[in-house]
Specification:
It is a single chain. About 70% of the residues lie in helices and about 5% in strands. The chain has about 325 residues and is α+β, with helices and mostly antiparallel strands. Strands 1-5-4-3-2 form a five-stranded antiparallel β-sheet. Helix 2 runs antiparallel to helix 12, helix 11 crosses helix 12 and helix 11 runs parallel beside helix 13. The structure holds zinc ion (ZN) (4 copies). The site of one zinc ion has 6 residues, from strand 3.
């Protein structure tokens, strides 16, 4: 069987579309989660969403939509608990995560549904995705991608330095809740592709890989999306071909392919970091006067970049860096 034959099946075409969109959306929001050191947030939301899926299976509503609702509620709750910064915040999150997972499994059983049905959502079942679910997946994923790319300057400023963003007049809480909601939507989008228990991997691993190779925030975002896409489409294809010889589930294949990408790029990243240190051995020393690369753009109040007050001057958030006008050039701040 060759690739053309394989991809002529409608179920493979649906799976391919779902994989493509999931692979783009999950790392897009994952970039902001990693930047805010919330890499495991997707995992937590995934646990909570199990209850949403169970409610859908038991009531006969679409599990995709009940999962979206419960995941969004859970994500906002996680954000509220996190933002309050209580000393017992991590315990509260643990209660939420394991309560969500255990509750979901219990509700599924009580409703007379088999564990096998829930398992489709725990570990993914992309090749059985229906035409309706593919459309929902594509619409939700497109929404996540649009917001993540379109609001990149604001979301980056908030994730990078909430204090500066607050002073600059950005509504930090609104953006944080927005990131939480987008993460919840991505989790439910990726649920059919890699499953709720592996969702976080697709949100985090491509970002970790692209951080090895790219220096600016925008480059990290774009290459993480490309890598996520490559891993999900590649993993699906590999598992489809391997399925002629053995049982090879697409979800774990996608995650392992993504991890393989990280393992391969890690030495390159280490070498790049080493080379950067050799080139600029005193890079740490002259704080505040690190001149930017060639800079064709004049920053000002109307240039469209987020302006952040910084001591006695204003920095402009530009491509993941803060640029401060200094004479005829710009400094990295
Ligand atoms: Zn500007
Ligand atoms: Zn500055
Ligand atoms: Zn600049
Ligand atoms: Zn300067």
């Amino acid at each position: 069987m060759n690739a053309a034959e394989l991809f002529s099946y409608p179920f493979m075409q649906r799976a391919l579309l779902a994989a493509l969109f999931t692979g783009l959306a999950a790392p897009a929001i994952g970039t902001y989660l990693v930047q805010r050191r919330l890499a495991l947030m997707g995992d937590g939301i995934g646990h909570v969403a199990v209850t949403g899926v169970a409610l859908g299976l038991v009531t006969g509503w679409s599990p995709t939509w009940t999962a979206v609702v419960i995941a969004v509620l859970g994500a906002v709750l996680i954000e509220v608990i996190r933002e309050r910064g209580h000393t017992n915040g991590d315990v509260a999150l643990a209660l939420l995560f394991y309560g969500g997972l255990a509750g979901g499994v219990l509700v599924t059983g009580l409703g007379g549904q088999s564990a096998a049905q829930l398992q489709q959502y725990l570990f993914g079942s992309i090749t059985t995705i229906s035409a309706g679910d593919v459309i929902v997946t594509m619409v939700l994923a497109a929404l996540v991608i649009l917001v993540c790319v379109g609001l990149a300057p604001q979301l980056f400023a908030v994730a990078q330095d909430p204090e500066f963003a607050r002073v600059a007049g950005l509504r930090v809480r609104v953006y944080n809740v927005l990131v939480a909601v987008l993460a919840a939507v991505s989790v439910t989008v990726a649920m059919r592709t890699v499953g709720l228990l592996l969702v976080s991997a697709l949100m985090v691993v491509p970002v970790a890989t692209s951080q090895q190779l790219s220096r600016t925030f925008r480059a990290t975002l774009v290459s993480a999306m490309a890598l996520g896409c490559l891993a999900s489409v590649g993993g699906l294809t590999i598992s489809a071909f391997a399925s002629y010889h053995a049982t090879v589930a697409p979800g774990p294949t996608i995650v392992l392919l993504s991890l393989a990408g990280f393992v391969v790029t890690w030495p390159i990243g280490a070498w790049l970091r080493h080379r950067a240190r050799l080139r600029a051995p005193f890079a740490d020393e002259p704080v505040g006067h690190d001149v930017t690369d060639t800079h064709p753009h004049d920053h000002g109040p109307t240039c469209g970049h987020v302006a952040v007050p910084h001591d006695d001057h204003v920095d402009y958030v530009h491509d993941g860096h803060r640029h401060a006008p200094h004479g005829a050039h710009y400094d990295e701040h």
